[in-house]
Design goal:
Layout: E1 4-17, E2 21-23, E3 26-28, E4 32-35, H1 42-54, H2 60-63, H3 76-89, E5 93-102, H4 112-123, E6 130-135, H5 141-144, E7 148-158
Parallel strand pairs: 5-6
Antiparallel strand pairs: 1-4, 1-7, 2-3, 5-7
Helix pairs in contact: 1-3
Bound molecules: magnesium ion (MG).
């Protein structure tokens, strides 16, 4: 009998002029990027939280505290690999991941397939087990003013 879990994750980061923007392990051409302790990859942070949540293994702050200098400027793809490893230790494998990225600009249309492929590699699953959706916030609130990026993620895992 298969043990099956659902997890949900959310992350947001402040954006500022002249900083790099990376989402889902992919560098995005943008005039504004993330202000963060790590590389600011909100898509991967939300994904890690969704995975940890599904396995009831705490949250990203528990495992990779932003007060720890070891994680300063860290490539978030490494955090995702470590997270997948934590789940594997408990016998879990990822079944699927579904991401929604909310960013006013730039438009992510051309980046979505790249992010999908990158995350599938990191999650050790096929491309069609990863869904990447992108939308704007229609000009409303902090997201709509381009002050930040937010990402919501649902995952399922099984063992
Ligand atoms: Mg974060």
């Amino acid at each position: 009998m298969t043990d099956f879990r659902i997890g949900f994750g959310y992350d947001s980061h402040r954006l500022a002029d002249g900083l790099p923007l990376r989402l889902g392990g992919i560098d995005i051409a943008s005039e504004r990027g993330c202000v963060a302790h790590s590389d600011g990859d909100a898509a991967i942070h939300a994904l890690c939280d969704a995975l940890l949540g599904a396995a009831a293994l705490g949250d990203i702050g528990t495992h990779f505290p932003d007060t720890d200098p070891a994680f300063k400027g860290i490539d978030s793809t490494l955090l995702l690999q470590k997270t997948v490893g934590l789940l594997q230790q408990q016998g879990w494998q990822v079944n699927n991941a579904d991401l929604t990225i909310v960013l006013e600009r730039p438009k992510l249309k051309d980046y979505k397939p790249l992010i999908q492929k990158k995350l599938a590699e990191l999650l050790l699953i096929a491309d069609d087990q990863v869904s990447v959706k992108a939308k704007t916030n229609e000009g409303m609130g902090f997201l709509g003013r381009g002050e930040g990026v937010a990402v919501a993620v649902a995952v399922t895992i099984k063992r």
